[in-house]
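Quick note —
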Amino acid sequence: MLVFLVSDVGTMLGVCIAGAGIAQVMEIGVEQVMRDGLLEGLFPDWSDERFAVCALSLPAPSSWES
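Predicted structure written out below.
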């Protein structure tokens, strides 16, 4: 199984529209692409929008090894 994680909504929607994945997105951000038939809802009875919050802290680039 390949898992593709993105932090950019535009990239995520592009991947989904291309047919290469599924995503849980907020309705307010995909209304037009849904109307245009580019995306479809997979679980219409599951209307609860819940999102995990993840944080990642990396060291400053100057401390990275070459």
